[in-house]
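look at this one:
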Amino acid sequence: MPSNTELITVLDVDTREEALRIIEASEGCDWYKIGSQLFTRCGPDIVREVLGMGRKVMLDLKFYDIPNTVAHGASAAAALNVGLFTVHASGGINMIAAARKAVEGTDTRILAVTILTSFTDEQLRDEVGLYETAAQAVPRLARQAIEAGAHGIVCSPWEIQLVRDAVGPEPLVVTPGIRPAWSSKDDQARIMTPKDAAKAGASMIVVGRPILKHENPAEAVRLIKEELAQ
């Protein structure tokens, strides 16, 4: 049976022209992630332009602040009509609840980021001071975020099943750290192939450099979607 897992292509570039070129070159992909790099350079206009092309946007700014400030940010994201935006799960129950209240009645959904895929357990302990492994912290943060009102969770592919066990089948599970077998690992520590992530229960996979660095982005998208459908 074909997978229902969707592909989100990352627009981690510096200019509007580069972003639009990637969108045009990666025909067949509906979702695009706009993060701090492109958003800081181009602002909300790039979001509007991508949406105007008939694509969907995941706004990945990882809001983390006091509840009132995050609520205003959530309201602004909903006003832009983005499909998804991110907050940090570690921001706590009140922060996430405030964000959820701010988007009620809109089509915008909140994703809570658990532990960044670049972290190893040793770094979590020695640098962050978190005396849990990722496998312990991620389901705890996921359960708390969903109970507070998040629509979905962002986690590494290694924790997909742990998150599903914690929050059930309904919430979105979105995973970066996806590396097709034909691509390089780069700086991600906890990675998985598209096929394995889909099999584990990912709702969406986020792919950046394997597409952006490919000599033919459309071919990279085709290969990834082909793998998801296996």
